[in-house]
Amino acid sequence: MALLKDGALAEDPWTLPGEADELPAEAPAFVSLERWQAERERLLGRNAPLGLRLRAEQSPDTVAEELHRFAAIALEFPRFQDGRAYSHARRLREHHGYRGEIRAVGQVLRDQLLFMQRCGFDAFEIASDEPVEAWLAAMAEFSVFYQPASDGSRPAWRHRLAGTQGGEAA
Amino acid sequence: MYRYDEFDQAFVRQRVAQFRDQVNRRLAGELSEDEFKPLRLMNGLYLQLHAYMLRVAIPYGVLSAAQLRQLAFIARRYDRGYGHFTTRQNIQYNWIRLDETVEILEALAEVEMHALQTSGNCIRNTTADPYAGVAADEIEDPRVWCEIIRQWSSLHPEFSFLPRKFKIAVSGAAQDRAAVKFHDIGLYLRRNAEGEVGFEVLVGGGQGRTPVVAETVRDFLPKRHLLSYLEAILRVYNLLGRRDNIYKARIKILVQSIGIAEFARLVEAEWAQMDGSSLDLPEEEVARIQAYFAPPDYPAAPEVDLAAQRRAEPAFDRWLAANVARHRVPGYAIVTLSLKPTGGIPGDATAEQMERVADLAERYGLGEIRTTHAQNLVLPDVRRADLQALWRELETAGLAAPNIGLAGDIIACPGLDYCSLANARSIPVAQDISRRLGDPERQRLLGPLQIKISGCINACGHHHAGHIGILGVDKRGEEFYQVTLGGSGEEDAAIGGILGRAFSAEEIGPAVEALVDTYLELRADEGEPFLQAYRRLGDAPFKEKLYGTA
User: In the structure, what pLDDT confidence band is assigned to residue B49 with cuts at 50, 70 and 90?
Assistant: First the structure.
């Protein structure tokens, strides 16, 4: 596995300890929703960034009031055909105003990368056997989008109204 | 009609480039078939029994003459000289090679077309009333909103991996010619008490193995909020629709399981949280798109009295009665070209026919053609004074069967002749029935009668919505056909009921004839169509005729 973030491969400081394992004292770590609910107080007492990893059927709404406690939220694609995490990501960004990292985990393929990014994902756990250039190219295949989403890019109609050009695609 | 601007052009070009890369990776073995499948399906490319099938989108069934000529070119160059118009107003080619698909997409892009989202678990091509913009019974032109939906749904980042396919239909007329109530989302343009035009929004319609008539989720939605409201519906479905069982994954199952009231509550709650001002189109953009659909300047055309011509030529009279509809502009008419010649394959057209139709659309119309969900073609703007001349030309092109809405206007899926899902053949059954009921005078006497045939329970031939529905089933390796009666795909939408045991391929044609004879014997008068008579009489007399028991 490799981590794609900010347009490049990055060192991943995060770990995902097993459910029964002790969390690292200093390093950032993801926990499951179950663990968060069971060990909330103890986890809050740690002195390192905490992340939440949600399965596709777990709605971020469950922890809506506490989202600020998580430096990162990992949303799982159990199969790439399972598109629930796209909606979770958009709701996190647009309804809950979540500004931390939203990480795509599970079956993350390059043909879905642009969709993920547009829905508010900004970190991607990807298989490391493809050159990073191919992943970056996949994100730049389109310069025209027809609908606003969570990535801040302007839909075609905004360009039309403003009389501006869409960026040229790679 | 809508014309691409620089953004639309760039978008389809980039889409072709993306698909070229995906095909190359598949051919190079970098993508497994499992990984490639959803990518090719997003592009309308199916693997069928004998070859790849490519389904090309005809947005809301509107084509220019130049586009139809390009479809003819593709049929000739890349297929076997014909194409098949589908029940969702698209066209599909059944004999396509994978390594030529990119060329075909390039050819489509040249005429502002694509095959995007004609299959896969995404928002499919939006369909509409084929008489949109010219129908005499229309409140407002639905094409404007169809084009808005087309753009919004194209490569939608959130809704490209839904639990299952998702179909939207829009009608702006009193009569429903788009089977709106059998769609995942159905939209009827309505005028409210204040005189404002908005949408009645329906959800959860569909056919397949669980046929459901859509229910109203909102009585009146102001037009300007359409996109945000659609997003709210799609999001609720994307999050809550079942993904564990392909047969229970459509939105209709979700709506049924929680009930329309709860579904509406969830949608409204989601919608209330959304930032509509960023999702909904501003007035200027709606106006920009609307301008493309502004009514053309119709040259004044005299109202002609065709009575003498009708008397002189009974064949012209029959055609006029069945295939010509009232236009909202006096002196003009809407003409449906039948792709259902007696004994033919419903919806098939040869490259030559497509070119003829393109020429006729330019000579007798304003260069525009529509496709219908009943698998026919429409010339929307014909001067009434030209009708007889047009009819003669259509006769020689084999496109003048006087059977629109009548017994010969059969809808059929491709069935086991092409489709890998089918249990039974549909086309030979359609051909057989079409020959049995082919006599034009008999069809005229029979009146409105919709026969619809599906080769399997997926119901692509809309059998649930047929006045007479026929479903192909497999019984120990043999093809059998189940009959349903009383379905309707129009504003009085209903699901047909199964009549009794299934018939063999040899028996099904005579069985349909027997049903038709029973109707003729029992109808109150010539003004009582088949469906109405069935609703009055019930199953019993038809059962008795076919099975000898009431």
Answer: confident
Q: Which of B38, B153, B158 sits opposite A149 (nearest CB)?
A: B158
**Inter-chain residue contact B159 with A83, CB threshold 8 Å:** yes
Together in a domain, B172 and B243: yes
Task: Write down which residue in B250, B275, B290 finishes a domain.
Answer: B290
Overall CATH class of domain A2-142: alpha beta
The verdict on A114 touching B (C-beta cutoff 8 Å) is: yes
Find the domain containing B195 and state its range.
134-290
Instruction: Assess whether B458 and B543 both reside in one domain.
Output: yes
In this structure, the answer to whether residues B146 and B85 fall within a common structural domain is no
The answer to whether residues B359 and B92 touch, using CB atoms and an 8 Å cutoff, is: no
Q: Which pLDDT belongs to residue A166? A: 56
A83 shares contact with chain B (CB less than 8 Å): yes
Residue type, position A144, single letter:
V
Residue B118 lies in a domain: no
In the stretch 112-141 of chain B, residues with CB closer than 8 A to chain A read 121
**Over 90: is that where the pLDDT of B38 sits?**
no
Q: Which two tokens stand for residue B137?
A: 């019974």
Q: Which residues pair with A72 in a beta bridge?
A: A51, A101
**Is A47 in CB contact (< 8 Å) with chain B?**
no
State whether B282 and A141 contact (CB < 8 Å): no
Enumerate the residues of chain A whose CB falls inside 8 A of the CB of residue B7: 144, 156, 159-160, 166
With 70 as the cut, is the pLDDT of residue B402 above it?
A: yes
Does residue B302 belong to any structural domain of this protein?
no
| CA distance, residue B542 to nearest chain A CA (Å) | 46
Q: Are residues B238 and B334 in the same domain?
A: no
Which chain B residues are within 8 Å of A112, Cβ to Cβ?
Answer: 161
Same domain for B417 and B543, yes or no, is: yes
A169–B275 C-beta distance less than 8 A: no
Closest Cα in chain B to A94: B274
Short-list A92, A66, A80, A101, CA closest to A150: A92
Judgement on whether residues B284 and B139 belong to the same structural domain of the protein:
yes
Give the pLDDT of residue A169.
Answer: 39
B393: CATH: 3.90.480.20
At B432, the amino acid letter reads: D
Number of domains comprising chain B: 4
ipTM: 0.96
CA distance B6 to chain A (A): 9
- Tell me how far apart the alpha carbons of residues B56 and B367 are, in angstroms, rounded to a whole number: 20
CATH code for position B253: 3.30.413.10
* Rounded distance between C-alpha atoms, residue B428 and residue B441, angstroms: 23
Same domain, B216 and B190: yes
Task: Give mean pLDDT, residues B222-230.
Answer: 97
The verdict on residue B496 lying in a domain is yes
pLDDT of residue B303: 83
Give the up-direction half-sphere exposure of residue A94: CA atoms within 13 A in the CB hemisphere: 26
Chain A residues with beta carbon closer than 8 angstroms to that of B157: 86, 114-116, 118-119, 147, 149
Q: Taking the complete model, does pTM exceed 0.80, yes or no?
A: yes
pLDDT digits 0-9 by tens, A34-88: 999 999 999 999 999 999 999 999 999 999 999 999 999 999 999 999 999 999 9
Report how far residue A120's alpha carbon sits from residue A104's, in angstroms, rounded to the nearest whole number: 10
CB atoms within 10 A of CB B504: 12
pLDDT in the model for residue B15: 95
What span, in angstroms and rounded, lies between the C-alpha atoms of B290 and B140? 11
Same domain, B95 and B154: no
